[in-house]
Amino acid sequence: MTDTDKDRITLQVARYRPEQETEPTWQSYEVPLRKEWTVLDGLNHIKDHLDGTLSYRWSCRMGICGSCGMTVDGEPQLSCAAFLTDSAPGPVRVEPLGNFPVIRDLVVEIGDFMNKLTEVKPWIIRPEDKPPDEGEYLQTPDEMDEFKQYSMCINCMLCYAACPVYALDPEFLGPAAIALAQRYNLDSRDAGAADRRNVLDSAKGVWACTLVGECSTACPKDVDPAGAIQRYKLTAATRSLRELLWPWGAR
């Protein structure tokens, strides 16, 4: 069975091949338009059948790994969750994530994001761990609910592509890094909030955020990084006021 014209859709893909181009160009491809196909399926069809030189990242195809983030029709999205039928009759414009340097085609450089993650120490910090034979660190459902939402981050970087503050100031820690810092600050097993304080309270930390909220709109996992940032702002402001009014007992 062959696809008719009505069963096909055009993908306009941003191409950048640094060995032969000085800036991105556009290239159009026709792919099958099938109900179950996502933009990632369309790109895989191009890679497998039309143009093996196309470069992009993907892994799980299930909205879990976060590696297939791209700009689809002007919006940062997971390409494995953006269905071609939602953009019919097309064309569908596919570009790399904004606010990141482009390495090749749809592949962006993520080193800055990874460095910012390590700055906020997204791991459990304890002065010392009890011996394994003393049992687990148990949590109540309420204690887990405190941080569970922020633990859903998949490091897809869509929030960075959507963030106007990061676009203007690359020094800004960014939504995902701050949300992940809050994930651990709110974990009853963690004792590292003071270790994260300097970077979160700095000029490049939470106070740089102007609460546009685009990060939470773009987040595919409803992490609500804007909410995490505002929650930390309230915590920091309350702590500062307490230290001002009650300096001998604030710490």
Automatic annotation (TrEMBL):
Cofactor(s) of this protein: [4Fe-4S] cluster; [3Fe-4S] cluster; [2Fe-2S] cluster
Cofactor info, note text: Binds 1 [4Fe-4S] cluster.
EC numbers, comma separated: 1.3.5.1
Keyword annotations from UniProtKB, A to Z: 2Fe-2S, 3Fe-4S, 4Fe-4S, Iron, Iron-sulfur, Metal-binding, Oxidoreductase, Tricarboxylic acid cycle
Residue ranges that the Swiss-Prot or TrEMBL entry lists as coiled coil: none
Limits of the 2Fe-2S ferredoxin-type domain: 7-100
Listed CDD domains: fer2
Superkingdom of origin organism: Bacteria
Enzyme kind, highest EC tier: oxidoreductase
Pathway(s) this gene product operates in, as recorded in its UniProt entry: Carbohydrate metabolism; tricarboxylic acid cycle
Catalyzed chemical reaction(s): a menaquinone + succinate = a menaquinol + fumarate
KW Oxidoreductase (keyword) present: yes
Pfam families xref list: Fer2_3, Fer4_8
Assigned protein family: Belongs to the succinate dehydrogenase/fumarate reductase iron-sulfur protein family.
Protein name: Fumarate reductase iron-sulfur subunit
Gene that this polypeptide is encoded by: sdhB
